[in-house]
Amino acid sequence: MLDILSKKHIEAKADFNRWLIAPAALGIHLCIGSVYAWSLFNPALIKRLGVVTSAADDWTLKSVVWVFTVAIVFLGLAAAIAGKWLEKVGPRMVGTVAACCWGGGFMTGGIGILTGHLWLLYLGYGVIGGCGLGLGYVSPVSTLIRWFPDRRGMATGIAIMGFGGGAMIAKFMIEPLIKLFYEAPDYLGTVASVNLSTDASGRRLAEVAGHLQEVVIVGANDVANMLVPGDAGVYVVGTGTVGVAETFFMLGAIYFVIMLCAAFGYRLPRQGWRPEGWTPPPEDSQRTMITQHSVHIDEALKTPQFYQLWVVLCFNVTAGIGVLAVAKTMMNEIFGSTLPSIVDFGFASTYVLMISFFNMIGRLAWASASDYLGRKNTYWIFFAAGIILYCSIPYTAQQVSVNPSVVWLIYFYAATMIIFTMYGGGFATIPAYLADIFGTQYVGGIHGRLLTAWASAGVFGPLAITSLREISVKNAINDLATKINPADFQAKFGADVDQLAQLISAKTVTISKLMEIAPPGTVDPTASLYNTTMYLMAVILFIALIANAAMRPVHPKHHMQN
Questions:
Q1: pLDDT of 153 over the 90 cut
Q2: In percent, how much of the chain has pLDDT > 70?
Q3: Under CATH, which number does the domain 13-183+241-270+293-484+519-558 receive?
Q4: Interatomic CA distance for residues 353 and 262, integer angstroms
Q5: What angle do helix axes 443-450 and 406-438 make, rounded to 10 degrees?
Q6: Phi then psi for 413, rounded to 5 degrees?
Q7: CA distance 189 to 154
C-alpha cells in the first residue's frame, strides 16, 4: 500500500502541465501556514479556567507562546532530517506523513487543553504538529524548483506564499469556532454586590452556595478584552468554557483531509526535462552568483556560504517571529488603552489577518522580484529597511502614550505590514538563493538543513519578546504601585501593597487594574512594554546585513563532478 506513495509512481507524463503542481503545493502550505495564527489561540488559552479573564491557575502568556516556539523548533529539526529522505522517497510520501502529523498534533493538543495537561499541548501541537510542519514545508519546494528552473524565485514564492496566507484563512475558522463552542461562566453580579475576600496567595474568593469559591473580576478596562462581550463584575472560576479544545479537534480533521488530497497531487518531472524553448543562462558567478554546477547535500555543510545563509535566515526570522507570536496581544497592549474606541478585540484580530495577508503577498512579490533584482540585493533591502522600521516602533509607542492620535496607529500599522512583507519574502527567496549558490540537484535537502535556522529563531524570537515584556510588566507595576494611595490599593484588592508580589503572581494585580485607581494624569506604561525588544531586533538585523554583504560564490572544489 505504501508503494503508491513512492517516488517511482509520481513521474509525470510528457504532456503534464507543470502549473498543476502549484495547487497541490498551496494546499499543504495553506494548512500548515495556520501556525502563524497561533496568537489567535493565546487569549483563549490564558483564560482556560477564568474564561472571561485569567484566573490564578490559568496558563501564562509566556507558557503558551512557548508551544508555538516548540512547533517551530521541531519544524526545523524535521525539515533537516527529512531533507535527504525527501530526495529518496519523493514529495508524496513526505506530504502524506505531514498530513498525519499536523492533523494528529491538533487532536493531541485538544486533549491536553480539555484535561488541563499543558505537556500534552506541547507534545501534540508542538512536537507532533511541528514535525508535520517541517515535512509539509519542504515537500513541495524542490519539486517546484525542478518544474520551474526558468523562474526559481516565482516558483518558491508560489508555494511559500501559501504558508504566509494560511493564517489569513485560519482566522475565519478559529475565531468563529471558538465563539461557537464558548460558554460564559457563572456571573455573580457587580463587585459592589458581592462580598469578596483575598486569601494569603492573592486569590479573590466569594461565597457561592455556602462555600468559598475562587472568582475572577472583570474591570471596566478588561471588558474590551473578553472573548465574547459581557458585563463587568464577578465570575466563578471553573464554570463555562472558552471552546478552544473543541476548535482544535475540528481543525485537526479539516487539515488532515486537505493535506492528504494535496499530497496525492504531486508529480515529478522526468530526468533531463526542461521547459519548452528554455536554455540555461550562461554562468556569471561574480555578478548574479547563479551557478550551473551542483553541490552535494553533505558537501554544502563544509562551505562558509551555508553558514552565512543560515545567519541571514535565522536573524531575519528572529526579527519577525517573536512579533508574530504575540501580534494580537501586542496590538491590544500598545493601543488598546490609548485608543479603546478603535482598538478593541475585533480590531486586534483583524490586525492578525492583515499580517497574514501582507506576509503572503510579500512571499510572492519579493521572491518574484528577486529573479530580476538578484537574491543578494533583495536581502540588502530587507535588512536596511527593517532596521529603520524596528527602531521607529518605540518612538511610535511613546508618542501614542502622550498624544493618543490615530495617526500613530496608522504609522504603526503601515510599518509592521512592511516588516511582514519582508519577513515572508525572506522565507520565499531563500530556496532560490540556495539553488543559485549550490545548484538544483540537492536543493531540497540543503533547504531542509538550513531550516534549523528557523528552529533556532523560533526559540530566540518568542523568548526574547516574552521575557523582555515580562520584565517590563513587573517594572511598570512596581512603578505604578508607588504612585497609588495605599488606602485605595487596599480597597481595590483587599490586601496591602506589601503583598504586591503575591498579588501579581495570582494575576489579581495587573497594569489595567492599577490604572483604574492611579492618580489623574498618570501615563499608562502598557504601550512601552515592547520597546527594548524592538531595539534588539534592529541589532540582529544589522548582523544579518553583514553576513549577506560578505556572500561570495562557492569555491569550485565543492562542485560535484559529472
A1: no
A2: 96
A3: 1.20.1250.20
A4: 24
A5: 140
A6: -60, -50
A7: 58
